[in-house]
Amino acid sequence: MASSPLVDLNDYDLTKTAVNKAAVLDVLSQRGRFEMVDGLIHFDPEGEYVIGYKDIKSDDWWCDDHIPGRPLFPRVLMVEAAAQMCTYDFMHRSHAASDRFVGFGGMNNTRFRGTVIPGSRLIIVGKLARIRSRMFTYYTQGFVEDRMVFESEIMGVVV
Question: What's the pLDDT score for residue 2?
Fold first, then answer.
């Protein structure tokens, strides 16, 4: 059984972008095919939540090979998108130097609950669970429309 949603997405305008992709890329190191965050809908480094999105397109690099004829956004990339969004939030909360790189530290209690297909917008919610100077943990969930497609506890480590 899925956990309860971390936030009520009806409380947010999911068509608005608070932080655009260019600003996200000013902080994150991933480039090209591994740019997994297209923008943030809600960003408040003083609050407990961050909400971002990834638009899934029919010409994305994985579409031809990840289930030919029925492309499914790879679930590992859902979690990668959440990790990148949480890294952006962590970098602002911790006031980390821009030359610091945060690596994927691990994940717990990960469950995939649905598929994501081209033409979808994956909404990612992160709730800060724990932060230290060199490490963080966030609870994350992903949604397509009103359907939860994944949830995971994500850890990042400054390397």
Answer: 64
> Among this protein's residues, is 95 annotated catalytic?
no
Q: Which of 42, 66, 92, 95 is catalytic?
A: 66
Query: Rounded distance, CA 51 to CA 86, Å?
Result: 9
pLDDT tops 90 at residue 100: no
Retrieve residue 108's tokens: 């717990």
Q: Is the pLDDT score of 1 beyond 60?
A: no
Q: What's the rounded Cα separation, in Å, for the pair 77 and 143?
A: 14
CA distances from 78 to 95, 149, 153 (A): 26, 9, 13
Distance CA 53, CA 33 (A): 16
List the 49-55 sheet strands across, edge first: 19-20, 39-43, 49-55, 121-131, 135-144, 147-158, 102-112
Mean pLDDT in residue range 54-72:
95
Helix (H, G, I), strand (E, B) or coil at 133: coil
Whole-angstrom distance, CA of residue 56 vs CA of residue 145: 13
| pLDDT mean over 74-78 | 97
